[in-house]
Amino acid sequence: MTRDRAHDDERLAGAYRRGNEMPEESLRDWTRLIGSFADRPAPAIVEVGAGTGVFCAAAARWLAPSSVVGVDPSAAMLAEAVRHHAHPRVHYVRGAAEALPVRSGTFDLALLSRVIHHLPDRPRAARELARILRPGGAAVVRTTFRERLDALVYDYWPRLRELDRERFPSADDVLGDFTAAGFTVLKVTSFARPVAEDLRTYHARLITRPRSKFGHLTPEEFEDGLHHLAADARRELATGPVPVDERYDLVVVTAP
Ligand SMILES: C[S@@+](CC[C@H](N)C(=O)[O-])C[C@H]1O[C@@H](n2cnc3c(N)ncnc32)[C@H](O)[C@@H]1O
What Enzyme Commission number(s) apply to this enzyme (predicted)? Predict the structure, then answer.
């Protein structure tokens, strides 16, 4: 089992944190939606593939949890999390979804945000989640399914859509793995919130290549897309700002 090591890169880890920030309101709306699937007050929360810790810190701020554990295999991403998203109720731990370094039956809520397509062994990860959640605890998968690749980023880098069609699982793939591990499907939905107030802000974020997917493009391809995005951002100065929304699919399953 070889894991995706893209996030071990310190440059990407720093760029990821800065380039994937979203407006406070959007982060709060997302966090509250995710937290709404916890079926008890003061839930114990785990984020698998926590990255730079944005959702761990947000959960600690807005969900009144008993504790939050953020697990990630990348030391570089966790260093950013500790530096920028520390909180007294959040503990960051190094580990992978397929062998989680936590006790069985401990958590009420597990979040996997933008991580499911990185997992080398999804069925094994689903079994691990069944182990660490208490019966009835919820796992929330926040992702983009292969059948809905409609983000704005593809307008500027169309080859990313082809690459992501190969990389991202379908809804059926994910539901199949979780139900095979004994989970019950509670909800399949999607939700969109602004990630940038206008194209200029969006451009300023993407200029640092803050996502591992940009590593699959040639420097020329990347510059070409950025050039088109900059031109549209300049035009927007005349027409007025248009917020950039990002939609994510959400699967919520409950543990056996
Ligand atoms: C795109 S980032 C998402 C970070 C965060 N959850 C978010 O939504 O901003 C993907 C993260 O998944 C982690 N990852 C990669 N392989 C993993 C695995 N096998 N188990 C757990 N996390 C993994 C990477 O190190 C990276 O931090």
Answer: 2.1.1.-
Ligand 1: nearest atom to the Cα of 97: 20
Q: What pLDDT is attached to residue 116?
A: 98
**What mean pLDDT is reported for the chain?**
94
CB 54 less than 6 A from any atom of ligand 1: yes
Ligand 1: residue whose CA is nearest its atom 2: 51
Structure tokens at 226: 């950025």
How many whole angstroms separate alpha carbon 177 and alpha carbon 125?
Answer: 9
Q: Give CA–CA dist 149/248, Å, rounded.
A: 10
Element (H, E) at 252: strand 244-254
| Residues with Cβ within 8 Å of residue 158, at least 6 apart in sequence | none
* Cβ–ligand 1 contact at 254 (below 6 Å): no
